[in-house]
Amino acid sequence: MAGERFQSFGLATPPALDVIPTDDAVALLKSGKATRNALLAYGNGRSYGDSCQNEAGMVVDMRPLNRIRAFNAETGVIEAEAGVLLSDIIAHAAPYGFFPAVIPGTQFVTLGGAIANDVHGKNHHRRGTFGCHVESFTLLRSDGRTHYCSATDDARLFAATIGGMGLTGLILSASIRLTRVPSLDIVETATPFRDVGEFFELAEAADRANEYVVAWIDQLAGGHRRGRGLLFTGNHAEHGSHAALRAGANLSVPFQPPFNVLNRPFLTAFNAAYRWKKGRSTAPRQVGYQVFFFPLDGVGNWNRLYIALLWLRSEGALALAPVAGAVLMMAEFGDAARAATPDLLCSALFLGGLFAYVRGREVATATLLFLAFMARPDNIVFLAIFAILLVAFRQRAWGELAGFAASLVAYFAISHWAQHPGWWPHLWFFSIEQHYNMDGFDPPFSAVAYLRAFAASLVRAISLNSWVGVSVLALAGWYAASRAGFKLDHRAGILLRHWSLACWRSSPSSRSTTPASIFPI
Question: pTM of the full predicted structure?
Fold first, then answer.
């Protein structure tokens, strides 16, 4: 399991860190020493949300349980271990004229996962869910006992486990009843519809006449085209192939793009092209089962395409985006950054403190921000800005406030001990003028003088530096994220405002002799 990432298919949650092999998990459960929430089965990671994650304990890699134990070619009942993929079941049963009664949109789902999630298919109107065709299964629970469950044996546990998301125990093996089909090929018909109203009219008749029915709707179409789409119907071909095709991807997305590939302009063009291609002919056509059921299985890691911005929805991820930008800013000052060891130490500690803040880890936030201050005491300015924003927006983040309070007390002690000029020269030093040291630096203690100097240096900074371009790019990125439907939570919003103030704090330093990049936001 070394190097594997046990992640949800939606990539919206961090991958599981604690993974236990199947044999070890079985031994732990049979010993009766497994604690509450200790284990959760992990199949092939095709769940979109966090259902296959277990922050409170460990996930169990079920894929080694991948044997097909028995198959009755007369009844179509197949018994297999929980880690067997549906693609393996199709390949095993196809030569005998059998096919899963219910199949989801991917064949790369484990048998145990299909039961635990009670998946559905394109024939829900006729066959119901996957669980309707489960004959029995063996379930290992935390009491150390292995239960044989069916509709007549331990029926309550049987019902609770189907669709139980793995919370009733580990499914070790199961028997399901397949359905007999004339061939694996599908006779598919695509029927365009103008709007949702027409769809419902077509769907009622389609449900009665066809085994499989599914609709595609162009959700980006507006005006009189709103709600348009295609209704696909399908039935197993009377004369077709019984050969299961190789289950694998012909193409693959090698990496996750750094930007949202599936943006509105691209999707608008794609939807128009897809509707034209699929809807140009309403005549029935015979296609392979993989084309009809699993069109996206042919592209490996295709989920990376539409996940490029989905990470922003996870907790604190959008707030960490400015931090990533700050790291790039630091990299711009290569020689200075490499020479300034305290600055880099301060940056590392601040990054840790910000991460702890957006994750709600208050003790870690207070500790790391205080240590960052101790590495560079002059960064009390940033902690003060942060604290002011938290108070102004009534954010109960006592970790940052405690870190600031401790730093403030230490700041006055350090200033007195080191004969430091005080907070006002520090503020002026950071936002108006910067020098190698502050010997003899005594700016006027006047808000009017400060604002005049700030305005003058801001004009010079805009004319000399690239902050205008950076701001335009930032606003464009922010607009794109907003259009994509991503919203800041309260903590992330405060951190973004803090980052913005810090950037504008840096920009006016027109007479700086060192780059204003001490604090990495």
Answer: 0.57
